[in-house]
Amino acid sequence: MSAPAHEEDDLAPTTTPGYKPSAAKTVDEYANLDAEDESLARWKASLGIVPGASEAPASGPKVTVLSLELASPTLPPGKRLLMNLQNEQELASIKKNPVTIKEGVDFNVRINFKVNHSIISGVRYIQVVKRSGIKVDKMEQMLGSYGPHPKGEPYSKDFDTEESPSGMMARTGTYNVRSRVFDDDGEVYADWEWCFKIGKEW
Length: 202
Hints:
Layout: H1 5-10, H2 27-32, H3 38-46, E1 63-71, E2 81-84, H4 88-96, E3 99-102, E4 106-115, E5 120-131, E6 134-146, E7 155-158, E8 162-163, E9 175-182, E10 188-199
Parallel strand pairs: 3-10
Antiparallel strand pairs: 1-2, 1-4, 4-7, 4-8, 5-6, 5-9, 9-10
């Protein structure tokens, strides 16, 4: 799905002058780098980076974004606000049916993803929030560095805690969100739209 030029500008990441991403390496190449450094070896092992660990062919996307979740300690027991990004019907539904976020509470965005091959770094999540077509917020978060999980299990990343707006004005209208996950090379792993509203209760 291509976006108008002004929307692409909104989704542009923050850049650091002079920064150039390093050339991509395979899991085995990373595993054999500085092999004599024990502390580095332990860190790489925690990412699943060990010699011979890469059995899957390096094809297809490096990252599969599975779901996005809004997490909060104020959510009622058993309630979960989870968007399954692998379900086309659910994606179409969340674009039309706003998620309700309780006013004045702490919450955070949690992203669940799977690393298919290679080592990821420089992968980030950006969301732009608009109300009545006017940008009111932009969040940019790095996922961190990960290798394919040895057991093929997904990873979860909790982003910084935010406080939802409150008051009658905040409860009026719908907030439209554009979310994107991509890397330093410009490869987009997920790009979707959803919306939320502010309510007195979840």
